[in-house]
Amino acid sequence: MADFQISLEILGISLLCTFIALGLLLRERWASRRIKAKLVTVSEEKDALSLYDANTGLLSRNGIETALRHWVDRADADGSAFCALFLAIDEFKSHNQAFGQEFGDRLLKLTGQRLEALLPEGSDLSCVNDGEFVLLLSGNSSVGLDAARQLLRRLAEPLQHQHGSTVLTCSMGVAVYPEHGARSRLLVNASIAARLVSRQGGGDYCLYDPQMSADLREQTLLVADLRQAIDKGQLELYFQPKVDAKTLHITAAEALLRWHHPERGYVSPAVFIPLAERNGLIGAIGNWVIDEACRVAGHWRALGLRMRVAVNISGYQMRQDDLVPRIEAALTRHQLQPARFTCEITESVAMEDTKGTQRAFDQMRAMGLHVSIDDFGTGYSSLATLRSLPASELKVDRAFVSDLAESEDARSIAASIIGLAKALNFKVVAEGVETQQQCDLLMRMGCDELQGYLFSRPIPAAEMERLALAEPSEHSGPGFSDSLFNATVVADLNDLPSR
């Protein structure tokens, strides 16, 4: 009996332990299910949040991609068309940098509100990046272009904010489904069209064309080749002379960049220079041009041909901290005096009121470089700013030279520029001189130097050297001979380096 009672007690204890273990197991499973349910809820909430931009409240990139799938499914089902508009605020980064991130966020909100107010019912609007929006709306290309026109007009109205008011311009590209690509390409193609508008100055819109993608691929390949052009020795400097307007003696030579591609042949600077500027290559190319121009000028100096060499300096280079030190190092390396090196800077860049540009001008002045304001007359110069620059030369833009013989207005403008330059004690160079009549008119107006096809096209350094050392003939025009450089040689005798 005692044994039986002990067995019952043991059995009871075992059952109790079993019930306790079962209870703990069930509680753990219930807790696990609650955690899983919570995770699912959090995940769903996170996915929902990822569909919207935190700043503007509009659809995010993920959100517009999700919406795009629905638009494509509906269009495929009923055979309808819809438009994708890619809108980029011009110079948005500049606004952001000028007034700060908080201002940029506020600008995006206000822009989003304006866009929302104009969209027809059923459209979708997304803020996909800083300063970039995507709109989806029903209709064909005419509907999309009309919407772009309205949006452009609405966004041009000043935005009021704590810093005052801002007038926005934007670049818009329109692509139509299914005409302009499948779902994976539609937004990309709309952005390609917008990028083309931006490159042409912005403030406009255009419809996507398949040729744009072909051009973009071509440009991408060209940029890849351009990155290697310096190392492969494909870049070369040509030189175009400047002549004294009274004697027609050569006084200087402007270095002009050329690219000889092994497969494409000659690539125009009008094509590859903008590519270099947009893709961060202009700095390296500009440094090569400076050093190569100094090398060539040093070689000419050793031969007794002491021309001033001119190099075009871009706005990007003017904002580089080490521009002038690099020029100084190149001049020292090739034993040249600063006064023999001309920095040609366009009027629009010269008028930039930025710390970087002003610092570069101050360093040029301190170093004694010869500074020329290029393309003068095409910008909006401030007389006070012009007087403060360390420049000693103005170049009259070719646009005013080409019509001199036919247009009284062109003659008046050219005479006014030359008169202004003389009043400021600047030397005047006229570029684009192609006829004897233009040459005669500019001489009578008091122009100091002339440059253009009438005297010489840009030629390789070796060819210029050969002409410079040759005896002039009766058919060679001004010619490039030792005698023609007497004026500059005499003027430069005191510039000879002591070493």
Automatic annotation (TrEMBL):
This protein's record includes keyword Membrane: yes
Residue ranges of the TM segments: 6-26
Pfam families xref list: EAL, GGDEF
Ranges for domain GGDEF: 80-210
InterPro entries, per the entry: Cyclic-di-GMP_PDE-like, EAL_dom, EAL_sf, GGDEF_dom, Nucleotide_cyclase, Rev_trsase/Diguanyl_cyclase
Keywords carried by this UniProt record: Membrane, Transmembrane, Transmembrane helix
Coiled coil region boundaries: none
Domain EAL: 219-472
Protein name as catalogued: Bifunctional diguanylate cyclase/phosphodiesterase
